[in-house]
Specification:
Length: about 260
């Protein structure tokens, strides 16, 4: 099931995407998808609505250096335990929205990732039960001001700028996250190729670890890490993250101001 968040005029809501391409329609949900839900009976052509970020989370918990090859390209090794950090909810944008290149940075990188969307309140979840806490999965871009990451000694500013967490285009609830292909294209050229089978810490282990530290709430997002091949973007560029079984998230980069 593909659950999308959308706007149509003054209305904002959730719906289930049925079909593909020009024939795709949105079966509108009465309420939200984080508990048992019913359909309102309204059906909207997807081409006539705006797809938004599928959730606005209370927090985004991201994981660094969770692919060995990416850790190596960053000059280190994958950590024995997940390396977690937070991105603010104000960084979230949706498909088609602009990534704003901050004037204070000289290098901004793309990082395509699989994102897990939490479906229920989760605290100290054992690894064996962790995937049951997930509503579904979406595409993410952990945009990073690389120069600020290197200069600051911590990652809050580099990872936390407004527009630095594109999510979308929807949440796929039927995905097995253990072995799906992930890629990132910059201006139509393939820059990242990876597979979640190469995650150092798989999704269930991440959720168990993170929920032992902080309570995860419905709608929270876990960014699971990026494969090798990260690189810089510039104003005017178009970046697309594609994940097998989900779809493609595309955003353009614009200059600040």
């Amino acid at each position: 099931m593909r659950i999308a968040r959308y706007s149509a005029g003054a209305d904002v809501g959730f719906g289930v995407v049925e079909g593909d391409g020009e024939a795709a329609v949105l079966a509108v949900i009465a309420g939200h998808p984080f508990s048992a839900f019913e359909f309102s009976g309204e059906r909207l052509p997807v081409a006539e609505v705006r797809l938004l970020a599928p959730v606005i989370p209370s927090k985004i918990v991201a994981v660094g250096k969770n692919y060995a090859e990416h850790a190596a390209e960053m000059g280190g090794e994958a950590p024995a335990e997940p390396l977690i950090f937070l991105k603010p909810s104000t960084a979230v944008i949706g498909p088609g929205d602009a990534i704003v290149y901050p004037a204070a940075s000289q290098r901004v990188d793309f990082e395509g990732e699989l994102a897990a969307v939490i479906g229920r309140l989760s605290r100290r979840v054992p690894e064996r039960d962790a995937l049951a806490a997930v509503l579904g999965y979406t595409c993410a871009n952990d945009v990073t001001a690389r120069d600020q990451q290197q200069s600051d000694g911590q990652w809050s500013r580099a990872k936390g700028h407004d527009t630095f967490c594109p999510l979308g285009p929807w949440i796929e609830t039927g995905l097995d996250p253990s072995a799906v292909a992930i890629s990132t294209d910059l201006n139509g050229e393939r820059r990242q190729r990876g597979n979640t089978s190469d995650l150092v810490h798989p999704v269930a282990a991440l959720i168990a670890y993170i929920s032992s530290v902080m309570t995860l709430l419905p709608g929270d997002v876990v960014l699971t890490g990026t494969p090798a091949g990260v690189g810089p973007m510039n104003a005017g560029d178009e970046v697309s993250v594609t994940i097998e079984g989900i779809g493609t998230l595309t955003n353009r980069v614009t200059a600040d101001g």
